[in-house]
Amino acid sequence: MIEKCLFPVAGYGTRFLPATKSTAKEMLPIVNKPLLQYGVEEALAAGMNNCAFVTGRGKRAIADHFDISYELEHQISGTSKEKYLQGIRGVIDQGIFTMVRQREMKGLGHAILTGEPLIGDQAFGVLLADDLCMNQEGAGVLQQMSELYNQFRCSIVAVMEVPDDQISAYGVIAGEAMGDGLYRVDKMVEKPAAEEAPSNLAVIGRYILTPDIFDIIRTTPPGRNGEVQITDALQAQAQNGCVIAYKFKGRRFDCGSVPGFVEATNFVYENIYYDL
Ligand code: G1P
């Protein structure tokens, strides 16, 4: 059973400036709920009650969001507005929230390594809050992956097919199809040019990682954009052991881009949101 989930949340959110100048991009709301809360709820629903945030400067709102606000509680306690706090109260009660600060932005691999003291020697989830995933038919994506981990006991990455003209924005896998949307990964490349992409299967921001990944990251040199890439560390792990790619069930919205953010907002407003 996987108990911990790491949330790398130190990024600048430049594509959403000026909104992200003094606010964490993970706190931008999709309708009435911050992006990060959707991610935390997905992790909690998968049984990952221990949420580890790799934060950075200017991200204090994240720590405050997952804690009690006494003044607010006091002001609206007993009024008709109290119902609006129920959702986040439930999240705060269910989760254990820990944080570590990433002082320098050196890539996703580096962010994950920065979270090592919060994870220790156990397999863990990684959730990139920019990728909002919804599965109205059943279990959330992290839960689907956690169940696969119990079966295979190796690292798992979530993948989806993307068109050729978008593939260079992603980590891309190649591997042997095992059926049921599963692939045994033999190659991973970070943001390849379209003509060099080994397939059209792009990694999205959901991972289950076995803890040997930390030692691998420690010896992984900077790759694409001069950053330490988790994709490169997973490529090394795939050579020595096993990494499985999984075509997840559900929808994913790229909330790191303005069109994806708007699409997610419309989807949630039309299908999920309701006024209490
Ligand atoms: C990161 C990863 C990339 C992955 C993507 C998913 O890239 O490095 O491999 O495909 O997340 O959203 P980023 O979007 O942070 O540049």
Describe the structure.
- This protein has one domain (4-271): Alpha-Beta Complex (Spore Coat Polysaccharide Biosynthesis Protein SpsA, Chain A), CATH 3.90.550.10.
- The strands form three sheets. Strands 5-4-1-6-11-8-12-10-9 form a nine-stranded mixed beta sheet, sandwiched between helices.
- The protein has ten helices and 13 strands.
- The longest helix has 14 residues, at 258-271.
- It has helices spanning 35-45, 60-65, 70-76, 86-94, 108-114, 116-119, 141-152, 213-218, 230-240, 258-271, and strands at residues 4-8, 29-30, 33-34, 50-55, 96-101, 124-127, 131-134, 155-161, 171-179, 182-190, 201-209, 243-247, 251-254.
- By secondary structure, it is of the alpha/beta class.
- Helix content is 32%, strand content 26%.
- The radius of gyration is 18 Å and the shape is globular.
- The model has no long low-confidence stretch (mean pLDDT 95).
- The structure holds 1-O-phosphono-alpha-D-glucopyranose.
- Residues 108, 128, 131, 170-171, 190, 202-205, 229, 231, 256 line the site of 1-O-phosphono-alpha-D-glucopyranose (G1P).
